[in-house]
């Protein structure tokens, strides 16, 4: 097996090692980012939904930046929402703060029943700049 080119955001490596997964992996010019939630530094959920969504994007952006990328390079997004019928509008009013201008990335939204105490999770695939393509 090829050695995985893992990207860790500053200050959170221990959290990922404790939970036994990589936050992101560079491969073939792309960055595959694990689902990001609105977790505080200790991994605990942010209780306020809007703040949780903002924190999920902040955590995502830290990984993208650590890879030399940004949300502008994101081409595919998957979001997971617990009880989307009651939470979607609250979540989606926060999204434009981070989403950028059109054309937007592709999007798949999935309603789920459980996210380990969280209400929102976002995972992405981004194109890496040539200098960081790994």
TrEMBL record:
PANTHER family in the cross-refs: 2-IMINOBUTANOATE/2-IMINOPROPANOATE DEAMINASE RIDA, RUTC FAMILY PROTEIN YJGH
InterPro entries: RutC-like_sf (IPR035959), YjgF/YER057c/UK114 (IPR006175), YjgH-like (IPR038743)
Gene Ontology molecular function, alphabetical: deaminase activity
Single GO cellular component term: cytosol
Protein name per its UniProtKB record: Endoribonuclease L-PSP
Top-rank taxon, per record: Bacteria
């Amino acid at each position: 097996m090829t050695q995985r080119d893992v990207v860790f955001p500053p200050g959170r490596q221990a959290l990922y090692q404790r939970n036994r997964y990589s936050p992101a992996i560079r491969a073939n010019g792309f960055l595959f980012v694990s689902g990001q939630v609105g977790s505080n530094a200790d991994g605990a959920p942010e209780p306020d939904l809007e703040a949780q969504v903002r924190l999920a994007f902040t955590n995502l952006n830290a990984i993208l930046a650590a890879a030399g990328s940004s949300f502008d390079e994101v081409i595919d997004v998957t979001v997971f929402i617990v009880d989307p019928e009651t939470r979607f509008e609250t979540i989606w009013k926060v999204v434009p703060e981070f989403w950028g201008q059109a054309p937007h990335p592709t999007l798949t939204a999935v309603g789920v029943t459980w996210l380990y105490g969280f209400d929102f999770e976002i995972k992405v695939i981004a194109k890496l700049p040539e200098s960081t393509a790994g």
